Amino acid sequence: MNKPIGVVNGNKEQANLGDVISMNHYIFVNNEMKTINIGEETFLLNHLLHINIYPQCVKENMLLIKFDIQNLANHDVPIRILVENYLHAETNNYAFVSPKNEVLFLTDREQLYLTSGIIQEKSIYQYGILKMKTSLATICNGSIPFCPIGSGEVATVYSLEQVIKPKEKIHAYTWVLSSNSLVESDLLNWDNQLKSRLAFL
């Protein structure tokens, strides 16, 4: 990721999640995958697809990113947002998927992290745990191999997928939540509250 999430308007906030975990975003559209940088506008399909991505909330225990996506074309445009998260301390990590709750967990044994997102009220579609050094090459075709558990130098990867109608503007959100209690239920309750609130914005 070119711009650290822990930096907002050029000022680094203290002890935020951007100091310990990375969140990288990609978009797969028209059989091509492109990197999306936070704080930058992206135009695809000959400027017919406009994407703006920016931090909505940056705290010690939360990273919330918002997408504004507009289809300026006269036809439907299917999109797939792919999100990759990994801890900066790459070794001795453990990650796993919770399909029932539509979230992924990542831990360094001291802190527990939950990653998820929504697009137009829909939660994650594909998901998996991949080795960091191969994750980008593995998903370059827009598909995520299903691997529910991983350890060591691993990344959580998931997708948000939607067909955008002509001239339609939609919103998507991705986030990381953290807790030092290592209790999954605490983060799951927070995740459910966040999904319920953001679905109606």
Give an overview in words:
It is built from two helices and 15 strands. The chain has one domain: Glycoside hydrolase, family 65, N-terminal domain (Beta-galactosidase, Chain A, domain 5, Distorted Sandwich), CATH 2.70.98.40. It is globular, with a radius of gyration of 16 Å. The longest helix is centred in the C-terminal third of the chain and has 15 residues, at 184-198. It starts with 6 loop residues before the first strand and ends with a helix. The chain is mostly beta strands and 201 residues long.
* CA-CA gap between termini: 27 Å
CATH level 1 name: Mainly Beta
Q: Main sheet: which strands, in order across?
A: 5-6-7-15-11-10-9-13
SSE arrangement, N to C: EEEEEEEEEEEEHEEEH
Percent in helix: 10-25%
Radius of gyration: 16 Å
**Strand tally:** 15
In CATH terms, what is the fold-level topology?
Answer: Beta-galactosidase, Chain A, domain 5
Mean pLDDT figure: 90
Q: What amount of the residues lies in strands? A: over 45%
Class of secondary structure makeup: mainly beta
The biggest beta sheet reads:
8 strands, antiparallel
Q: Extract low-pLDDT stretches.
A: 1-14
> What's the total helix number?
2
Q: What number of domains?
A: 1
Q: Which descriptor suits the 3D outline?
A: globular
CATH architecture: Distorted Sandwich
CATH superfamily: Glycoside hydrolase, family 65, N-terminal domain
